[in-house]
């Protein structure tokens, strides 16, 4: 039997296949397609345009350009909508809905007749969700991102969302900036379409996707408003048509070796802490487990090469102009698995050898021999407070705070934090550790980016810029500071964090990769911790019942592939 392609595949189940195809074609005729067009391979285009997603404002233009590429290559492009997750428009937090979007994407790829799919996303959770869905559906797929925003200006200073949003907000809290000025800043931080202009989560995930081989080479960092972004979209449409011929499915591209390459790059770019969470979830859909001890081993031998905010002075538009992902990959070449396949059909090694000797701006992307830091940006910590791990972004932290024992100043949940942090009577000193509980994956807020606890106002006004902060929450990739995140198991699932009380002693040692609660086990056993309330219905109930902890990427267990490699 000949293999069905295009609209003839995946027929609606009426118990009569010929009737189902006849009916489908009848309805497709109503859309004005000719019989010739209907006979062509179909390229689905997963579109995430939404008025609730500023980062995706130019997605309709990208979809048109993808269609142009598909048509020119002899295919029929059919766009379809999925859930879109606009980072700042969702409550309580976008991560809660990432798995829902991945299910939507997976099922719509599988249920609709397409030979390959172009995934158009960009904002933090959309690319991970699309890749998770595409890996589970395992139809040939290529990712296209919206690209980063351009920077803005205010009083002679260059600004980019959203590291500068946080920097100025911290100055406002410290009384260094007036209300009128913060109002002006608000209008100059995010001035174009596209994703955050720094090495935040969206930029990190775009770079990791190119590294994994699921995106066209050189396209991760093209600014959103650059004409090359449209050319990348057109080329992605044409590449999807080649995928139909090569039948290169995502499971052949996402392998243990390409995932390890992505981990290396995550470390070398000083990427977002969310990157490890999403990469773990993406790899999990291919049956690949990321071991945090392996992350530590890679971190010890992978230098930080990229000097972008939040840790350096530059922005994504500079990174693109400096040479982009290709320049980073060429520096890391001796550490990478060069035999990994990419979506173009060539290996990573073949891709890189084509670009040998290309110009690089060394002020933005350093050479392997002269790195910004000799070791990777992220490390995992373990200990009695984090038995299954916690994540620490050392490249964004103050080394003076790395080896300390201190008193815990505890907030029970994000609401308690908001209510008491700025209380002038709060019992806190600059030497304390700020601890936030019940902000992990199983909490009612679904692991918000609350781990960057603000410095209490009375300390901020006294000039304190950084403190050790510990939580089961996440942190925006655009934030910085001495912040321990993803403490696992989280408080809501009964992890040791749940039992921490004000005044307990905690020891942090980045050198030893340790995070310990210095309270005797018998005392901890006496402390009663109440379990969280199970949501009554709907997706929130499914999420509560199925979500895994941070070391498993916060995916749902039933969505992961059985571990095979
Ligand atoms: Fe969309 Fe930052 S808000 S990438």
Structure description:
With 565 residues, this protein is α/β, with parallel strands linked by helices. The protein folds into four domains: 39 residues, no CATH class; 273 residues, Response regulator (Rossmann fold, 3-Layer(aba) Sandwich), CATH 3.40.50.2300; 35 residues, no CATH class; 156 residues, IlvD/EDD C-terminal domain-like (Glucose Oxidase, domain 1), CATH 3.50.30. The protein has 20 helices and 14 strands. The strands form three sheets. It has an eight-stranded mixed sheet with strand order 7-8-12-11-10-9-13-14. A hairpin with a 2-residue loop joins strand 7 and strand 8. Helix 8 runs antiparallel to helix 11, helix 8 packs across helix 12 and helix 11 packs antiparallel against helix 12. The longest helix is centred in the middle third of the chain and has 20 residues. The radius of gyration is 24 Å and the shape is globular. The mean pLDDT is 96. Bound molecules: FE2/S2 (inorganic) cluster (FES). FE2/S2 (inorganic) cluster binds next to loops.
């Amino acid at each position: 039997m000949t293999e069905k392609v295009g609209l003839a595949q995946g027929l609606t189940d009426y118990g009569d296949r010929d009737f189902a195809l006849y009916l489908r074609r009848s309805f497709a005729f109503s859309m004005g397609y000719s019989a010739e067009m209907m006979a062509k391979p179909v390229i689905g285009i997963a579109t995430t345009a939404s008025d609730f997603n500023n980062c995706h404002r130019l997605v309709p233009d990208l979809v048109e350009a993808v269609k142009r590429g598909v048509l020119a290559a002899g295919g029929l492009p059919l766009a379809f909508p999925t859930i879109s997750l606009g980072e700042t428009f969702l409550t309580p937090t976008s991560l809660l809905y990432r798995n829902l979007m991945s299910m939507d994407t997976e099922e719509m790829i599988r249920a609709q007749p397409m030979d390959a799919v172009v995934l158009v996303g960009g904002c933090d959770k959309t690319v991970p969700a699309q890749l998770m869905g595409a890996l589970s559906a395992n139809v040939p797929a290529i990712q296209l991102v919206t690209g980063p925003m351009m920077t803005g200006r205010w009083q002679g200073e260059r600004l980019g969302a959203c590291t500068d949003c946080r920097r100025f907000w911290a100055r406002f809290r410290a009384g260094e900036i007036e209300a009128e000025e913060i109002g002006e800043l608000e209008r100059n931080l995010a001035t174009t379409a596209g994703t955050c202009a720094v090495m935040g989560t969206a930029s990190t995930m775009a770079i990791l996707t190119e590294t994994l081989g699921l995106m066209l080479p050189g396209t991760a960092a093209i600014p959103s408003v650059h004409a090359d972004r449209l050319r990348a979209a057109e080329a992605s449409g044409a590449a999807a048509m080649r995928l139909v011929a090569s039948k290169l499915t995502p499971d052949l591209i996402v392998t243990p070796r390409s995932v390890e390459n992505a981990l290396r790059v995550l470390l070398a770019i000083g990427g977002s802490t969310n990157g490890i969470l999403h990469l773990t979830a993406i790899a999990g859909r291919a049956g690949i487990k990321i071991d945090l001890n392996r992350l530590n081993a890679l971190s010890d031998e992978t230098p930080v090469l990229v000097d972008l905010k939040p840790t350096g002075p530059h922005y994504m538009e500079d990174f693109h102009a400096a040479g982009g992902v290709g320049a980073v990959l060429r520096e890391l070449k001796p550490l990478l698995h060069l035999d990994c396949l990419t979506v173009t059909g060539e290996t990573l090694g073949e891709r890189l050898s084509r670009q040998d000797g290309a110009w690089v701006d060394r002020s933005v992307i350093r050479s392997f021999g002269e790195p910004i830091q000799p070791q990777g940006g992220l490390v995992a910590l373990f200990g009695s407070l984090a038995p299954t791990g916690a994540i620490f972004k050392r490249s964004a932290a103050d080394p003076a705070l790395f080896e300390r024992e201190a008193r815990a100043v505890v907030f029970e949940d994000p609401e308690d934090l908001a209510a008491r942090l700025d209380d002038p009577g709060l019992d806190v000193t600059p030497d304390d550790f700020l601890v936030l509980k019940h902000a992990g994956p199983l909490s009612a807020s679904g692991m918000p980016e609350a781990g960057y606890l603000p410095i209490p106002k009375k300390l901020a006004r006294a000039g304190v810029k950084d403190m050790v902060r510990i939580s089961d929450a996440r942190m925006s990739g655009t934030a910085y500071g001495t912040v321990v995140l993803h403490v696992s198991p989280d408080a809501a699932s009964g992890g040791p964090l749940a039992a921490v009380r004000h005044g307990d002693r905690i020891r942090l040692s980045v050198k030893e990769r340790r995070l310990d609660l210095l309270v005797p086990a018998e005392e901890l056993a006496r402390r009663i911790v109440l379990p969280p309330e199970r949501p009554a219905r709907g997706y929130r109930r499914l999420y509560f019942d199925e979500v895994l902890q941070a070391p498993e990427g916060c995916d749902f267990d039933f969505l992961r592939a059985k571990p095979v490699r």
